[in-house]
Design brief:
Blueprint lengths: L1 H8 L9 H13 L5 E5 L2 H16 L3 E5 L12 E2 L9 E2 L6 H4 L2 E4 L4 H11 L3 E6 L13 H14 L2 E5 L11 H6 L5 E4 L10 E5 L1 H11 L19 H8 L3
Helix pairs in contact: 1-9, 2-9, 5-6
């Protein structure tokens, strides 16, 4: 609380990145080597929504794959449950979500290599990404099988789809280097939630520099990014968030 109060007395919000924000970003990239560049947001839902849009834009592909039982926030395209098979449309899992918003989301069974093969056989050339909880925590606790993870990596590499680890729940909880460090997997993109802010409303997504640079190029309208960490928005997150995070033990 002393550190948070000290940061608050120096100012609540700023229009440009601060030294503490840069230190925070460097800490994340040091602990999670797959994240070469980082972008800050306010919630896990926002991080996932942003990273899905980035994956589609970067690959110029339509479909995303998620898995039954995995929760990725409340953006419309991810509030979906499986239909009777890949030949049928999936169904929104929440009232207020139109079927049109979920028709490009393929929902597979977690740990099912058969489902993965079927999905890529049918839609492989138009799959933008696979997003998964590396440890599924919203249907009790389900560990991924080594064969399942290996197949995901193989198919993503073969078809040019991006692998996204949603570490909103697992990040810095299961291991200091997150679930990906524990599993020995290097995803293309990763999302984090409030844990990175020490409980404050802070979240982030990041990954390979070339993918994050694609987003930065759009934001900066063609000007090549030069900074180690880029962020868009009118205001930088308050320093109290970063102090809470960096002083969490």
């Amino acid at each position: 609380m002393e550190k948070v109060t000290h940061a608050l007395n120096r100012g609540f919000s700023f229009g440009t990145p601060t030294e503490l924000e840069v230190l925070f970003a460097k800490t994340i990239t040091h602990l999670v080597p797959s994240i070469e560049k980082l972008r800050l947001v306010s919630s896990g839902t926002e991080a996932v929504m942003s990273v899905i849009r980035l994956a589609r834009g970067y690959t110029n592909k339509r479909y995303i794959i998620k898995f039954n039982g995995c929760y990725h926030g409340h953006s419309d395209s991810l509030l979906v449950k499986a239909g009777s098979g890949l030949a049928t449309l999936n169904n929104p899992s929440s009232s207020g979500v139109l079927p049109e918003f979920t028709q490009n989301t393929l929902v597979l069974e977690y740990n099912s290599i058969t489902d993965l093969n079927e999905a890529f056989d049918k839609y492989g050339n138009d799959i933008a990404c696979i997003i998964l909880e590396p440890f599924a925590g919203n249907m009790n606790l389900v560990r991924p099988s080594p064969e399942f993870l290996a197949k995901i990596q193989t198919l993503c590499l073969e078809f040019g789809a991006l692998l996204i680890f949603d570490e909103v729940m697992t990040g810095f909880r299961v291991d200091l280097h997150c679930a990906q460090g524990l599993l020995g997997i290097t995803p293309d993109l990763t999302t984090f939630g409030k844990v990175i802010g020490g409980g404050m409303p802070l979240a982030a997504f990041g990954g390979r520099a070339e993918i994050m640079d694609y987003l930065a190029d759009l934001v900066k309208k063609g000007v090549p990014p030069t900074e180690p960490k880029e962020r868009t928005g009118e205001l930088t997150p308050p320093g109290i968030y970063f102090n809470a995070s960096l002083n969490t033990t």
